[in-house]
Design a protein that fits this description.
single chain, about 20 residues, mainly alpha, 1 helix, about 0% strand, rod-shaped
Length: about 20
């Protein structure tokens, strides 16, 4: 679960950084 949450957080952070 931790790995999944980390991956999701990374994806969201990358998407937010793109903006």
């Amino acid at each position: 679960a931790e790995k999944e949450a980390f991956e999701e957080a990374e994806k969201v952070r990358l998407a937010r950084e793109e903006e």
